[in-house]
Amino acid sequence: MQPSEIGQSYDSIARRWLEPHLESNGIRQHEHALKFRPDGGSALDVGSGCSGRFIRLLQSRGYFVEGLDVSAQMIAFAQQRNPDVTFHHADICEWSPPRQYDFITAWDSIWHVPLQHHEAVLQKLCGALSPGGIFIWTTGGLDEPSEKHDSAMGPPVYYSVLGIPKTLEVIADAGCICRHLEYDQYPEKHLTLIAQKT
After folding, report:
1. Which pTM was predicted?
2. CA 37 centroid distance within chain
3. I want to staple 43 with a disulfide (CB 3.0 to 4.6 A). Which of 3, 14, 39, 65 is the partner?
């Protein structure tokens, strides 16, 4: 699946991400990531979705936040809930960051990037960090590169992972240090990583 097709799949189920029980998903991990640098600065939420929970958390810590998503419906809902925020409707594989950011989050999003573009997207996001900037994202906790399709949420969705060794190699080559790696939903292979630009 291409990112535009992923966007269409999420268009059809966007409202599901407005359910109240999802408001706390990932907040603990983001609060931990925020401890690695002083509050304030510019931030980017990649795959920002529609709830705005990370945007509000970052704003409460003094960040000016932008959102980016490939789903037009997610962006529409997000803009209604966060009218003061700039949102980019774009494919992260093709989008060029307009500036450097002090904090970047890509929660449950860039694992939808085609495997052949995954390394380049990680390099791009690490490259968009300002010195000392923090990047938090999720991936599958596998040892080797892998990709799959499923329809567990209804519409077809694609996932890819580089594997832990390759992911750590890519971020190191991009000038970042892994500050935290956690299987945060064990025994599920849901992996959270926090990296910092040196």
Report:
1. 0.96
2. 19
3. 65
